Amino acid sequence: MFYRESGDFKATYNKDQQIFTIALDRWFVILFVAFAFLVVPFLINDYWEKSVLVPVLVWSIAALGLNILVGYCGQLSLGTGGFMAVGAYASYKLTTAFPELNMFIVVLLSGGITAFVGILFGLPSLRIKGFYLAVATLASQFFLVWLFNKVPWFYNYSASGMIIAPERFVFGIAITGPNAPPWATYLFCLTIVVVFALIAKNLTRGRIGRSWMAIRDMDIAAEIIGVSPLYAKLSAFAVSSFYIGVAGALFFSVYLGAAEPTEAFGIDKSFLVLFMIIIGGLGTIFGSFIGAAFMTLMPVLFKNIMVGGLGWPTDLVAHLILILIGGLIMFFLIVEPHGLAQLWRIAKEKLRLWPFPH
Amino acid sequence: MSLELLNTLEVILNGLMTGVMYSLVALGFVLIFKASGVFNYAQGVMCLFAALTLVGFQTGQIPFAHLINVIFGTEYHHWSSDITGGMNSFLAIVLTVIVMIGFAYIVERFLLRHLVNQAPIILFMATIGLAFFMEGFGDLMWGANIKPLDLGIPSGGSFWWEEVTRTWATADSKYIGMYIDVLDVWAAVIAVLLVIVLTLFSQFTKTGRALRAVADDHQAALTVGISLRTIWVIVWSIAGIVALVAGIMWGSKSGVQFSLSLIALKALPVLILGGFTSIPGAIVGGLIIGVGEKLFEFWIGPMVGGATENWFAYVLALFFLMFRPQGLYGEKIIERV
Amino acid sequence: MNSKLIAIIAAIVIVVGALYVFLSKEKEQAIVIDPDAELVFPSLSYRTGPYAPNGIPFADGYADYFTLLNERDGGIGGVPIKLIECETGYNTEKGVECYESTKGEGALVYQPLSTGITYQLIPKATADDIPVHSMGYGRTSAANGKIFSHIFNYPGTYWDAASIIIKYIKGQEGGDLNGKNIALVYHNSAYGKEPIRTLEELAKKHGYELTLLAVDHPGQEQKSQWLQIRRDQPDYVLMWGWGVMNQVAIQEAANIRYPMDRFIGVWWSASENDVLPAGDGADGYKAIAFHGVGDGFEVYDDLRKYVVDTGKAAGDGSNLGTVLYNRGMYAAVLAAEAARTAQVMHGVAGITSGQMRDGMEALKIDQARMAELGLANFGPEINVTCENHGGPGLGAIQQWDASSKSWSLITGFTGADREVVDALIMEDSAAYAAENNISERDCG
Fold first, then answer.
1. Residue B117's domain spans which residues?
2. Of residues A51, A298, A322, nearest to C97 (C-beta)
3. Do residues C76 and C137 both lie within one domain?
4. For chain A, which chains pass the contact test of at least 3 CB pairs under 8 Å?
5. What pLDDT is attached to residue C27?
């Protein structure tokens, strides 16, 4: 009734091609972003920052990046943890070598370095496909983590090999370190997320995104119609690694503050991001967000209900959470294999026809 | 023979043995992938679950003891009065096999059946959900403690082999003989038996032929009246039994504990090297990976600080893939527009 | 279509539920807790995941001792204790969540129980004015109290441990280590790398040769490392292992018939869990300890009487007296004593976390006090000062007897080579201070 296209006349091509074609959608998103920017910073406290909002934002960027590679370009990758480590160590080296550098620049440079590494490790994709490629990217995962563990230069020769984010600033406000106010770190991550989500959306709508999708749907056919697999695949690896590197830099310097490669960037991180995009929906921007939110918030939510609310023993709850998460993943896949984003789309379709479905 | 050569031989021999242990895990993956096209991420957790169940039966644990105790305020832990007196190992193995068959049935009934014809990555994801589920379920059922596993399989370095190899070295060198773990030899023997049984089964029984037919072409198999569902239950049961064997072998080394599920990661390079669809591939791949990573660690490892095995296995597999993108024994993919 | 509808509804329910719970959590936190009501001790335990076998007994010991204090004495100084357990699964992100969710409840002191979480909390807890007690783990150089004001790692650090083990070996070898070969098998992580620098320094001093053998996480496959040990036959093997790595290493050592009494682990490679799977092969394995072993202490009578027999124990009561249970209990004893000290110092019963920090810094436990606590000769005397947060830095060697399935201490508590260790601590803490713009506190 309210959510509809009729009566919304598009007079120009620009209007016809905008991201949110339905007015209500558009307003909803604008309101949501405005709320996130203008209201949330005044309400946020340490718990919300460190346990809910910042992790969701950071994982969203990582999921966006992987979704570009897996969902849009069809190249299955399990090297996410390793690439996040590259971003994290790049930001560590940059912040310690150039203390005056603005954190925005640090994060972007970290992403750039990761993109370069990503291209390097993306080369096998020209020859290997499917699950074989997924397992081959594990080589980068294990190698990178091992490298950061072994070469003392990466962790500035500290005794244990831990890296610790020093206090760094954006326009005079601490973003990293223990004294960073919650609203500042949150806004910092949010800005990056919003900007990069917009870029991702537009990349995937444009020529380069279409070439990725052509490769994904059938690479031989794409090659025949003139899409260069070399360019398409490597550009997907580069863009994806850039995002993942940014996520890694934020993950280490803003969210955790201290990290060691084996634990913080292990293989389980690679799997976690893959779960996010499959649960959220492959090949959708919205799915990256919803998947990241699902996988990071569900355990916290269940924990708060069962330990905080019902007072059960923590170990039982931890086991039950695993069972529930596993069960939910299977349940959602059975009802909707294309992820939560597809469910959302179906809900919107229904809403569009409501209350007269026929 | 020179000491250097003997040491290299020793490393190769032990690499082969380790490779067999990897192959045991990889076999389960291959079986399921062949028959249902599912890349079963839960294979590692199945090893853990099978081993946990076996030890649970053996030592007479009450399943879900912790949960029951919390809900009803009771204090039950073992159904027999003394901890060691559970049940006979053979009986425990049989019961565990039954549990794994039941598990296969449940997986087919509640998961696979609903996901027919989905994209491989969706099926992969579903098995990840399954892995989560079983991690939690296994811990909930049997507890998260570490449990020593003793089925009476001998272990430790072989004296006989040490004696034999000592004579190979020149008399004046202080060579102490070559090392081989008896448990590894047993694992190799069991792996060989397992492969022979599987081959005989698939070549000479009706079900085996049906299995091969399904692996070849699902649709054609369906049209000649083979029940896909039954086949899947059978395949998952066999994979469950293979998981039990792998769980016993690895569990005898380290005790049964959560980390057992991580051995799946050591099986992945074996899989890509051998090809997802080939049982001989899993064996040969395991051997190559085992020998390759041990030799690399032996020669190059000390120069770069060691602990190279994890990534080198993958790099080695990647190297082979460059030449054979479907693995050594994988089916050649023919692409048509 | 119906199933899709159900799924949509399910998704909506979950989202709404999530919002509701988070909002209610918000309210919960807003309530000001009366500080006089109770003393809050969070326990960041890990009863699940790959390290659960080690986490369970520690968490049980920690919980049971506080339960004992509540049941027997009505808390500390008359104020009841509230223990909040939070499951981390040894995972850093969950650790952060646990820290943030419990600190608002008035947490007095954190036991992070993982190297990763400890490094996390070092700056954060300092900023929040909450002390962290990383007992025998975490960042070794935090022993320098002038720079790490809120971090305590008494009664001993990894570097103390490395030095004491070398001292013990030197004693075994008749006072001369020249030309001896010592191998270190270590977990390839921050934790495992800790002792390397100390061992290298000591190698320069004593003239032994150090071989480093890294084992990658998780460490189920260590054939290469042990083949190398078998070939080189080092005089001693030290181990800095964790989780499944310990069991496999001890099993492999038994397989290659390495003399077990020359195989010495750090205190995290020293529990019953690590030696039991290897059976008789583990007989004679040694490890360093910073507290006593077994349940032959008076406090266990009370624990059985007030906690286990009344059904209030955290576990099933079967792990009383195991190494890690003892360690968890010892951690609780030290925390309780520090709280008591703080109560006396500040003259208030319901102390704050800042006062707790002062109590920890002034903590003194002599043998008479240990005996009063029912722990005569359980551990060394403890004396924490403003400069020294590492405590006495004493350790003893314990040895496993496979036939009786028990550990026993075979030496008394001895000290580390302070000259070497203190210099390293100064160097590392100074590097931290420089990197983070921290100036030394005045301890005068």
1. 3-323
2. A51
3. yes
4. B, C
5. 41
Q: Does B77 touch chain C (CB under 8 A)?
A: yes
Whole-number pLDDT of residue B36: 81
Q: Does A76 touch chain B (CB under 8 A)?
A: yes
Say yes or no: C45 contacts chain A, CB-CB below 8 A. Answer: yes
Domain count, chain B: 1
Q: Give the pLDDT confidence score for residue C31 in this predicted structure.
A: 36
**Interface ipTM:** 0.90
C419 inside domain: no
pLDDT over 90 at B35, yes or no: no
Query: B327 vs chain C: nearest CA distance in angstroms?
Result: 24
CB contacts of B314 in chain C (<8 Å) are none
Residue B335 lies in a domain: no
- The answer on C46 and C122 residing in a single domain is yes
Which domain covers residue C68, as residue numbers?
32-156+297-391+428-435
pTM, entire model:
0.92
What is the count of residue pairs from A and B with beta carbons less than 8 Å apart? 144
Look at A1-5, A8-12, A235-239, B109-113 and tell me which has the smallest mean pLDDT. Answer: A1-5
Label each residue of chain C as H, E or C: CHHHHHHHHHHHHHHHHHHHHHHHHHHHHHCCCCCCCCEEEEEEECCCCCCHHHHHHHHHHHHHHHHHHHHHHCCECCECEEEEEEECCCCHHHHHHHHHHHHCCCECCECCCCHHHHHHHHHHHHHHCCCEECCCCCCHHHHECCCCCCEECCCCCHHHHHHHHHHHHHHHCCCCCCCCEEEEEEECCHHHHHHHHHHHHHHHHHCCEEEEEEECCCCCCCHHHHHHHHHHCCCEEEEECCCHHHHHHHHHHHHCCCCHHHEEECHHHCCHHHHHHHHHHHCCCEEEECCCCCCCCHHHHHHHHHHHCCCCCCCCCCCCCCHHHHHHHHHHHHHHHHHHHHHHHHCCCCCCHHHHHHHHHCCEECHHHHHHCCCCCCCCCEECCCCECCCCCEEEEEEEECCCCEEEECCCCEECCHHHHHHHHHHHHHHHHHHCCCCCCCCC
- Whether B121 sits inside 8 A of A282 (CB atoms) is yes
Chain A residue numbers touching B139 (CB-CB < 8 A)? 319, 322
- Measured between alpha carbons, how far is residue C176 from residues A47, B162, C167, C417 in Å? 55, 33, 10, 15
pLDDT surpassing 60 at residue B82: no
